Amino acid sequence: DYATVLEQQASTLTRTERFPEAQKLLEQSLGLRRRIVSAGQENHSYQRQLGVCLERLADILNAQKQAGQALPLLRERQGIAISLSRSDPLDATLQNELLTAHEKLATTLEAQKNVKEALSLRRDIVKLSETLAKASPDDPKARVTLARSQHDLARLCLTTGDLERVKEAAAALDQAHEWLSGLATANALDDVSRDLLKSVMNAQEAIARALSGRS
What we know:
Distance between the termini: 64 Å
Order of helices and strands: HHHHHHHHH
Low-confidence stretches: none
Radius of gyration: 19 Å
Structural class: mainly alpha
């Protein structure tokens, strides 16, 4: 269909960082996707395609430092992802797409200095990541995703300077350390995951020093 053609052309432009041109094509595609969904609202495939288009357009806007314009698109994308995930809670693909939608929205909220809402969303990301990790106990990627979500929550908590949030960060990092250490023992960490473990340990040491100084 024509919307797919526009999106493919936008991908080509994005690879060469021709963002304004890619943005125009994705805006055209978004209009088409909206009309398609309006004509067949119960079709989950159409809704999913709309969600992907919203996300890609938001990515383009964020790449151009236009987080304010990306934010409403990501909120809409999140709403679609929530609806689809609830329609089939056992579909791991839909749950992972919801995780991605939450993550992109949280990152954009942080860029907008909306720490309160971003913190709430980071907590939701940890909960969902934990659910997915427990559902796939033999998948090291799911454990790393969980550990990263805990690390990101801790990072944001620490920006507040609030003692209770510092304690929350410490708890999140302890959990992340436990997940990653288990994978390290099983020799299941790649270079990126090892770097994450180092970052977690460095943050733990910094928090320990900070809490020691307050006592």
